[in-house]
Amino acid sequence: MRIALVSGDGLPMSGLLTVFRNILETGRELGLVDGQVPTDLGYAWRPDKEGYFPAGGPRPLHSPWMEPTRQSLRDGLDDAERGRRLLAVRDAVAAWDTLDAGARAETGRRTAALTAPFEEYFTAWLAEHRPDWVVAINMTLSDGVPATAGLHAAAGAYFADRPGGVVFWDHDLFGSCAIRDPDTGARVYPPEPNELTPLPQDTPHTRWVVISEGLAKETAGYPTDAVPEVLTNLLPRVPTGAPEERHREFARQQGLAEGRPLLLDPVRVFQVKGVDVAVRLLAEMKEVARAAGDPVPYLLVFGGLDEDPRYAREVVALSERLGVAEDVRFLDGVPLSSFRDGEGRWRLDEVDLLRLAASRAGGVVFTPGVTDVETMGLGPALAAVAGMPCAVTEYDVFAPVYGEGFGRVRLGTGEAEVRAGAAAFCEVLRRYRAGDAALREELAANRRAVEERFPREPWERFWRELAEAVGE
Question: Most CB within 10 Å of its CB: which of 137, 153, 176, 310?
Answer without folding.
Answer: 137
